[in-house]
Design a protein that fits this description.
Layout (H helix, E strand, L loop, with lengths): L6 E6 L11 H14 L4 E7 L6 H4 L2 E2 L6 E5 L2 E11 L6 E6 L1 H4 L16 H19 L5 E5 L6 H6 L12 E6 L11 H5 L17 H11 L2 E4 L2 H7 L8 E3 L5 H14 L3
Parallel strand pairs: 1-2, 1-7, 2-6, 7-8, 8-9, 9-10
Antiparallel strand pairs: 3-5, 4-5, 5-6
Helix pairs in contact: 1-9
Length: 270
């Protein structure tokens, strides 16, 4: 089976050049989609619209046809605004998921004193569910959903539970990239909130600690395949991936190695 002209959805919390960071995740999120698109694949990219992203500089504008989505967390309806921009000197568009309460602060994960935001748990839930609802509204059925980093960690379990019967996700396989991240604990209440009043408690048990290891382990448990950026990241999830395809990231040649890996993931029978 060939990956040629497959649909690949990239979801990442960090992406250059919109975030001014040199993190491995941001750089890969910038380079990999272009490498796949240049090999004749159809690409969509979804990221959070953090307040540090300059809308005027990056020419973001709202996608009116995708308006009207609300994401419920703790019985509160949170409006989801979708904006779009093009990556300079490419033909790729990026969709930005926005919400005034969660993303308009001039910071990414922590305040100016280095303290992680108390609502990073709800920001993560909002972003992950928002991704699923946005793709539904787009009516665009991906073959691969590639999730990068801890803030996307709920997408694999949402795909296999709440959204498993949605036609747009019926044939999708999910790949999770594990990075050696460092975040504060999202709290012992994270897994309860993330259940969205729809998922059984036992299903979310792997997320119960709310720390970085539990986020990675939870994502790895429900993903169809894993990409690791380093040995330490691999050790974090190795007990949960014994029967799954695993790839160690390499920048050269980035497009070719991922094409082959996606082929393997799509063709496997789970």
């Amino acid at each position: 089976m060939s990956i040629t002209k497959k649909r690949v959805l990239f979801v990442s919390s960090e992406m250059a050049p919109f975030l001014e960071t040199e993190s491995a995740q941001a750089i890969i999120a910038r380079n990999l989609p272009q490498a796949l698109q240049e090999r004749d694949n159809e690409i969509r990219i979804l990221v959070p619209r953090f307040g540090v992203i300059n809308e005027r500089k990056n020419r973001l504008h709202e996608v009116v046809r995708l308006s009207g989505i609300n994401i419920s967390i703790e019985d509160n309806d949170n409006p989801l605004i979708i904006k779009v921009a093009s990556i300079p000197q490419t033909k790729m568009q990026v969709y930005f998921l926005d919400n005034e309460d969660y993303f308009h602060r001039k910071a990414v994960y922590q305040d100016d004193k280095g303290q992680f935001f108390d609502d990073n748990d709800e920001r993560t839930i909002f972003f992950c569910k928002g991704v699923m609802e946005t793709v539904k509204k787009l009516g665009w059925a991906p073959d691969i959903i590639h999730c990068q980093g801890w803030m996307t960690s709920l997408i694999p379990v949402y795909l296999k539970t709440v959204y498993k019967d949605e036609p747009v996700f019926r044939n999708a396989k999910v790949v999770y990239s594990v990075y050696n991240d460092n975040i504060a604990c999202l709290g012992s209440d994270f897994s309860r909130k993330a259940r969205l009043n729809e998922i059984q408690e036992a299903t979310m048990q792997c997320f119960a600690d709310g720390n970085i290891k539990s986020l990675h382990k939870g994502a790895a448990s429900y993903a169809d395949a894993i990409v690791t950026a380093c040995d330490e990241a691999l050790r974090c999830v190795e007990d949960h991936i014994s029967t799954k395809p695993v790839m160690r990231h390499s920048d050269d040649p980035i497009g070719e190695q991922y094409v082959s890996f996606y082929e393997k993931v799509i063709s496997q029978t789970l």
